[in-house]
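A further point concerns the way the authors explain their paired sequence and structure data. The central task, working out the structure tokens from the amino acid sequence alone, is never made concrete. I therefore recommend that a typical entry be quoted early in the introduction. An entry of this sort, consisting of the sequence and the corresponding backbone structure tokens, reads as follows:
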Amino acid sequence: MHRYALGEASLELCCGDITEADTVAIANAANAMLMGGGGVDGAIHRAAGPELAKALIELKRDLPGGVLETGGAVITPGFLLPAKWVIHCVGPIFEREGDSAAKLLARCYAKALELCRRRELESIAFPSISTGVYGYPVNLAAPVALEAVRRGLGDGAFPRRIRFVLFDDATLEAYRTAADALFR
């Protein structure tokens, strides 16, 4: 585990399975339809159980066209997950978004942190949003994600612990390199 101080908060980087995170909330790299899929999204849906899909169907009724915009985030209970809450973030598809990709990716993290503040959630675990099938190169996504977290924390008291639970050693190394450049 690699740790960094961000004011009153701490940031942690590790490899692992986000569905097993011991944080109050976890972020989900969701698709715009909020209906589960592959990768992190599929793993979270499987681990949370069928109640998660039911909750998302209800939530979609309040979204324009039943779709969550790219860069948006919504929250549901975690159901069977160790985490009490799941914050569903729709990251950008790198090739489609072009020059807007970094702004949209940063917005995912900022919106997730805003939801943590509103609910006074002490901790959150993030995956590397958009770096799987959405094609965002991890070496470009890592500094965007980490800077968005630093900015998103601002002067707020929540969350106090932010953890990036990353899929493999190469992704962890990209985040560690970016964090060392940004935070040391």
